[in-house]
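User: Structure with nicotinamide-adenine-dinucleotide, tokens only please.
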Amino acid sequence: MDRKIRAAIIGTGGISGVHMAGYKALPNVEIAAVCDIDVPKAKAYAEKHGVGCDHVYESYDEMLKKEDIDCVSVCTWNAAHAPATIAALNAGKHVICEKPMALNQVQAQEMLDAAKKNDRILMIGFVRRYGNDCRVVKDFIDSGAVGDIYYAKATYLRRHGCPGGWFGDKRYSGGGPLIDLGVHVIDLSRYLMGNPTPVSAFGATFHKLGNRPHLKSTTKEWVATAQDPRFGFSVEDLATAMVRFDNGAVLSVECSFDLNIKKGVGDVELFGTKAGIKLSPDVEITTEMNDYMVDIAPYGETKLSFEGLFESEMAHFVQCVESDLNGARIECRSPGEDGVTIMKILDAIYESAATGHEALIR
Ligand SMILES: NC(=O)c1ccc[n+]([C@@H]2O[C@H](COP(=O)([O-])OP(=O)(O)OC[C@H]3O[C@@H](n4cnc5c(N)ncnc54)[C@H](O)[C@@H]3O)[C@@H](O)[C@H]2O)c1
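Assistant:
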């Protein structure tokens, strides 16, 4: 291509920083415009990143109308993912939307429909798919070393760690640790299991500890951020579930913002007919060798590294966009279709938690 790819960012908060850094690391991308309903914040962000003040917008509709853009990062709070993404797709832009894809599967399906109708790329920010640990584990699984995976565990437990603000307000977030943290490990587990189709979920959510703003911090582990009077706290503090897939495999899920557990845990464990394999803290394989049960660790660094993690995700998105502009689109590694499936799982867990019965996924 003889020109740079022109990208824009909607939502200039925390995560937009890694989208910006990812774009800036690539010589074939320029940031055309940024947008946030908080205009002073967007202006300061634009200045920091060298985006001209004429290219700062309060409204993404106006930005999409005025700016010559190839692709858009949607980095807003969850409630704005669907409307911003659909507007960008309808304006003919390719989109990377942060996780969770939307507030629910209905919105997620509308986003996917808009991508299909406009023949645009819709990638979801399932960043764990781009991790060094995921790469090693997927390699073992793809080679057949783990055998058939029939059980998996997706765990993301914080002792005390709602990010605060809108994350705790269901109207903006859609839910608590399940939709915010669980989404990462549920997607990673399903991806490593070979993306089986979910058929049902049995889940439970709890509102027992709340946000515990009175707790004093004595640790570097996640702690709640300052309260924001604009937002309430209306999300679960713990969610747990069993998800069943059409191949008979089952995924157990546990995630919390607040739980009386000694230490937070983040892990994905997969159990196959030939071996078990876990990702954290380092990749480890449990299997049999010479009629002994053995635990094996690959030599070298396999702990999830954040160095280059988001950059790999953003580089893949830009590669997808470039391939489209060059007329030969490559396959997206975290497509909107998988985002919809994950939203179906999350909806079913919340539905089951509300009814007390298993929820079917169609
Ligand atoms: N992939 C990851 O590991 C990861 C990590 C953190 C956050 N996230 C996701 O990124 C998203 C943003 O999280 P954050 O921590 O950056 O939140 P944040 O609160 O720091 O930033 C969100 C920004 O969106 C803006 N916004 C809201 N509605 C808007 C609209 N209609 N138009 C323009 N701007 C709008 C807000 O004003 C705010 O500045 C969330 O969906 C979150 O789940 C992903």
